[in-house]
Design a protein that fits this description.
2 copies of one chain form a homodimer. Chain A is an alpha+beta fold. Chain A is built from 4 helices and 6 strands; from the N terminus they run ααβααβββββ. Chain A binds a DNA duplex through helix 2 and helix 4.
Chain lengths: 145, 145
DNA sequence: TTGGGTGCAAACTATTTGCATTCGA
DNA sequence: TCGAATGCAAATAGTTTGCACCCAA
């Protein structure tokens, strides 16, 4: 289930294969969005994607960008990161990892925390199923405010 | 700096004292909102607060609820919890703790994780200042979907 | 009294939805 | 061909803002 996190732009054919393997019909717009997304490991908002697909290649509507990001996240091609109540971020890095969020700059960084250990979690009901654990370190670059 | 987390409704006078100690001018509406909030440990959205101050006591406008929640959070009377991209939650529990978020029910629960240890975090720049660490366990009550 | 606080409505932002059109298989 | 996907605009939800009035100190 591990997908290549290419550091170069993927070809259209590669994106199409990637989408197919995840049960997603590869349409023009989705492939276009996929090329922008999977060119490298990154964190994007819908706004980012919208701006970049407008630049290079054919334009994609706002609604389609939103729908596509949601679809990709559902199908496991993206991980949604909830750090900012005002907008959604999506992470193309699917490896287990956590995040540093710089509250002053809005910058989001991946980190791997070696020593993270979740000890006993007694309050979890037996029938509950854990979907994931998010760890977010909130920091600021400038001291004070 | 530790404040009493009363399990009973605070009197108006107690709320006024609490606000004053945090440098907040105690106005009628703020005291009203404070009584709703600090009656017990809880997680609330602006909508929750709006509904409850409408029920008991004098009505408070939507704008004032939003402004007041933001102010209380700034002044350290509430902790903002970012778990849901669609709305902000505020936690009256100021003790260090983490959260379980049930994605299917929208329920938010406090937990204390004994064994949580953040190991080496090499990627943090030296000049960066950590504001806090959020740990959110995403779970669902119903198996599967 | 007087500057901060409030109420109301309007503005705003991010996201979602409805529906006619277009496109992939 | 035919149902799924798209584009557009309008709708929605949560939150913020502008401004005249009001009240806590």
């Amino acid at each position: 289930m591990k997908e290549p996190q290419a550091s170069r732009e993927m070809t259209r054919a590669e994106v199409i294969g990637l989408l197919r393997r995840h049960g997603i019909t590869p349409t023009q717009q989705r492939v276009e969005i996929g090329r922008v997304l999977f060119a490298r490991t990154q964190h994007v908002s819908a706004e980012d994607v919208l701006a970049r697909v407008g630049d290079q290649g054919s334009p994609v509507s706002k609604a389609t960008v939103y729908n596509t990001l949601g679809l990709f996240a559902d199908k496991g091609l993206l991980r949604e990161v909830v750090v900012d109540p005002t907008r959604r971020f999506y992470d193309t890095n699917l490896e287990p990892h956590h995040h540093i969020y710089y509250t002053d700059t809005g910058e989001l960084q991946d980190i791997v925390i070696d020593g993270l250990r979740l000890g006993h979690v007694p309050q979890l009901p037996e029938d509950a199923e854990v979907e994931g654990v998010d760890v977010i370190i909130r920091a600021r670059r400038q001291p004070n405010r």
